[in-house]
Amino acid sequence: MENAQTSIDGETRKVYAGCRSCHLNCPVWVTVKDGRAVKVEGDPKLGPPNMGKACVRASEAIQFEYSPTRLRYPLKRAGKRGEGKWERVSWDQAVDEIAAKIHEMVEKHGAETFVLPGRTGRHDMGWVAHRIARTIGTPNNYYGAIQVCYLPQFHEQVNYGFYTATGGGSAATKCHVSFSAEQAYAWPIQAQTIMANKENGMKLIVVDPVQGVYASKADEWVPVRPGTDVGLIMGMAKVIIDKGLYDKDYVVRWSNAPFLVRGDTGGLLLESDIVEGGSDKRFMVWDEKEDRLKYWDAEEIQWEGGPSGKAHYDHLVELFEENKTSTEKSPAADLPDSIMPALFGEHEVELCTRGGKITCIPAFQMLANNVAEWTPEHTESITGVPADQVERVATMIGTLKPVDINQGMQYMSTNVSQYVNAINVLKIITGSVDVAGGNVLGAFYPVTPHAFPSELDLSWADGLPLEQKRKRLGYYTHRVGCGYAWEEMVKWQPIRPQNADGAMLFPDLTSVMEAAETGRPYPVHGIIAISSNWLMHDPTLARWLKLLEDETKIELHVVTDVVMTPTAEMADYVLPAVTWMERNFLNFGTGGGSSPLHQAYNKAVEPLCEARHDYDFGAMLSKALGKYDKRYVEGRLNHEWTNHWAGEYGKFWPADTIDGQRDLLSREFLGMPFEDVLKRRVVAVPGADTPPSTERFLIAGKFPTDTGKANLFSTIHQKCGYPPLPVYIEPAESPLSRPDLAKDFPLVGSYGKRQAGFFHSEFRQLPWTREMTRTPDVFINPETAAQFGVAENDWIWVESPPTGGRAPYNKIMGKVSFRFMVAPGIVSYSQHAWWRPEKTVEEELHGAFEWNTEALIEVENNCPETGSGGYRSQICRIYKATEEDIARYRPEITREQLEALMPMTPEECAK
Ligand code: SF4
Question: For 752, phi and psi rounded to 5 degrees?
């Protein structure tokens, strides 16, 4: 193996580093000449996830590193927010003043007055926000772009106990189904995997109203009407059930589909419902063999009449504590010969409690009932997908096994929770959850060892006392996404309570905004954004701007970031953060996860001027807060059962710097200093086992859920008062749900498509990227264009209804690009969170309102379960921009503007 740092000549060296221009953390070589990064390249020898390729975003990182938009010193606001007037201050002054203000505000309003918005996920730093939130004591922190994509992506853990991962299939995958994931741009590395598997015979089905690069390669492109995917899946489920194509063995053995559902309460029938002193961990099924009730015991991991898997499971837990695993199958993995739980039927059951006789049906029967009306013809009438295609695609999915299903991005609608329930149904009835070639459960299966705690593991929000957690905004109103679900799920995972935490716990965006506006249920006055351009990602930009302009509403707004952004322009303090080239990193994603191997990435160049890692800011802040109250430093808010690695490692700020913290962890878990770890590039935890990556349910004998099964019937939804199996709900602002508005807004916007080179709101200021992708394309069918009097390459306005506080920013510009493969009536706006670094702050906050689709989103009728808005299913209208509009907004980037964004020289960097 080559060294982590290879000298080419006296002044030039190659450094083994980890690209973090998107989520994947690919290993790359950075060539450094005279202390300056000059090249980023892949290397096939470096292995996954990029297998030697460095995508366009990695190459452009050089321009990001030296962008003139980089922040170099801590800045304190010297004028009004958004005026662009700043005073350079020292880190000490900035942090001391911030700490004093935080302390004063916590005393006055309570810790929950602070929110920590997280958006574009930099998970090598974003976890710091968790620690800062917990240090302050607020439950209102987000991890990632929650309502936009993170929540729906990981929401399925309410069904399986943990979320699944899809990498575009494997050699074993027969069929990959993608719901509107524009992989060619969003995940170019994953797109290569998909195409390689396709070459080997894997079928590719892409469900997307817009045929992009990726969909054009598909065996089946399914152009669904935006926001109606739930209906499509219900239609496909009906075909699969009617034709008997579901994986009966998997469904019966590994899902709760045979469990009986009470006709009176809608909950699952328990032994304690029918037998005095019966167990509430025994779920009742109807046994076809003996024509009577029998049970599955989730605690004993046992079918009635079969062997118990409990002793085996307990043994796995002991092994887990020693970082060991087993490949031995659980005795409870097989269904005993004496039982065959029924999937269909209706049964009268005598309760032992008040209520007498009730009718019960298996959850699978309930599903069959729910989809009964979804004939291919009915499905076509709602979704626009031709009936014969519904049948053909469903048959493919039901026949080609294993199937890998990527829920993608199409879900971004107000019915997202039901969408995830529907995807869950598709995954379970095709028997694909945690099977080889199917949807693999994430690395943290409770009984698979994870020998080395990542910073994420140590930072989940579960350390707050319950009464504080329950103050999370949205906790009681969006119960699956923001609160109550966690209280249930944390019971499922006693070994790793943090599994139930980080991906699920966040406040509801609209509730946060309303709390800031109205002071109810309590006022939000403080915002601390850790490397997050949150203002560009939040719907209803207009309402947030009004709040930020009013210093009696938002008393403190702190932003850390790598570059100046519209969000940072509205802050009181802006603190410079490091880039991925400027920090060392221990990667738990590549060769990490549940594996004992970890990649150690090296810093390639020194931080620009006074840029610091966000951890270092958090540690400083904690110390500064400690001047007012020692408990901020001592971790008073760190609840004792915080997580598996509680105690010493549960302390948030064990060192002053991130490298100091990693040194502590390296010495403890790897037996060597971090410096040595970095030299080795890949390190193994001594003595730790590598667990299997699939079919872990066979080994554990159960899924990490309340029922011990993959929950086809979502017990979380049911307990939270929401439908436990998918029901179709029309998007909140669609031509069908709002015909009154649709008279004036007759088109449907599907926003947030991808264009090459960007990552959410990032990289708009890179000349290479802007030469490639200068402006936001609006893909429309020529028929629609003709109807609305616009032509190819015209600048047009895309406009939403002004209601809900969207005005005056409820219209954005874009450039027409004809796509014959976009259904008529659909407006597909590429990208989201566009802003214009080529413009000054005086020019409407760097053009923050001109191209930002988030400003078009309605938030008042969002998803009841999760709070998600209608990002991809929002009515709109289009019309041509006038000459005056174009003269005013100057949408085309000019050569002068590009030149002004060119990388700084070494001399300029040093200023
Ligand atoms: S930007 Fe490209 S090279 Fe960098 S981590 Fe993402 S996929 Fe890998």
Answer: 85, 25
